[in-house]
């Protein structure tokens, strides 16, 4: 190879690499340094090193509750998305061509619509003057409106709605790689339909379920719009707390510390599980 | 061949209802003649659609989002096409690091990126400018373009380019007349996903935009947190209809499932 050809990949990729370095890596490092700065409510940010921001997050029960709520919200969202997303992906894969096109628009199309719009829909449905409450009242089933907005359940339902298409898509992609001959073979050997699904189809789509699950978990743990609109100020999660510290309390160092902890937690959990799973299911990935 | 039993059919119907219900509700309440959100309502009217025209700041935010999406998608494409070619066709020291760096916006939560860029832009003195916002959006959508460019370049028969070169074509001619046309489906698909992702982005923009440079999702978010009124429903309805039209067009051009696969 000539010297010119050896240099080619570098001058092709260096503009992109430099921009990403400048606008992702450098800002993240600056945020890390900001999280060690001191904050004085009267004077603002002081450029002196301190662990105080991390200590106040890690020792204060107020923040423990918020971090636990986020973890629990992300975990439940992921589990529900697996439970309803996997069968839906299977149904999609079995539909005749024409119906499949229709249901892809219905099931996956909402991914292209802004999260704000979709969350607004849930606010309309679940509000105390919302469709469900008014409907139940008209039927005489309740006297006073049931509180669903600003509850954990309300946030959870809306978040599942926002994120379940990612799960369906991931599982559906791995279903498409499936060789139908394996199902036919099992059936011709006398396996029941349920046995085929459980013993033949499911094990082969586990990589899809796991990658979908990791995406959903990471997005749920760092979701901002849906918890903010559905949960309000009373039901704080980690991203909305970081937002409030930055833009309301103007305590940037504390907000930066919360952001760093969120980033580390999400990366550690997703990369850790990924590593674990690749070892456990090595044969499936080959 | 019907392999789906009644249980799965019922489940499927409920799932479709779950996905559709909130969007249908938004469209329905947009047609109320009341000043607040209520369902069922007595009289239907278009007053909230006419109200969009008089709220020029929402219209401005819409066009700002459109142009921001165009700029971000174009910028990301200009960066990703050469980088994608290098990553797909060459094995060189640092390749993995550059690939990881370019895909990193997928790994870093948008809220963290937003905070990081707010801090960075403030230090540079460009916080809240439309230019800063455009750079932020471009970086955010680089992974979407890059992945489709790499996919297109990997399935590319390099002997065609070698043939052109051996017949005396310059490096630039080979790129413009041979390589780019063959990469075009990937590039165009990547541009579109990048545009959609930029147009819908909220979490990072909430930090990076100033009141004068609010994008449509940011403007809608600040409005919703304050009050939920039918104006928001009518704006959302317009967005839903536009997205539906775009989806049908994309389905004709590419197949919707292929476009959506790039969204994750």
Description:
The complex is a heterodimer of chains A (286) and B (264). Chain A is mostly helical and 286 residues long. Chain A has one domain (60-285): MetI-like (MetI-like fold), CATH 1.10.3720. Chain A is built from 13 helices and 2 strands, in the order H-E-E-H-H-H-H-H-H-H-H-H-H-H-H. Chain A has a two-stranded antiparallel sheet. In chain A, helix 11 runs antiparallel to helix 12 (252-280). The radius of gyration of chain A is 24 Å and the shape is globular. The two termini of chain A are 33 Å apart. With 264 residues, chain B is mainly α. Chain B has a single domain, classed as MetI-like (MetI-like fold, Orthogonal Bundle), CATH 1.10.3720. In chain B, 78% of the residues lie in helices and 0% in strands. Chain B contains 12 helices and no strands. The longest helix of chain B is centred in the first third of the chain and has 34 residues, at 56-89. The radius of gyration of chain B is 22 Å and the shape is globular. The mean pLDDT of chain B is 90. At the A-B interface, helix 1, helix 3, helix 4, helix 5 and helix 7 of A face helix 1, helix 3, helix 4, helix 5 and helix 6 of B.
Name its key features.
A: about 290 residues, mainly alpha, MetI-like fold, 13 helices, 2 strands, about 75% helix, globular, B: about 260 residues
Give the class-level CATH name of chain A: Mainly Alpha
Low-confidence stretches of chain B: none
Question: CATH first level of chain B: which class?
Answer: Mainly Alpha
Main sheet: strand order of chain A: 1-2
Q: What's the assembly state of these chains?
A: heterodimer
H/E element order of chain B: HHHHHHHHHHHH
Question: Using only CA atoms, what is the Rg of chain A?
Answer: 24 Å
The number of E-state strands of chain A comes to 2
What can be said about the biggest beta sheet of chain A? 2 strands, antiparallel
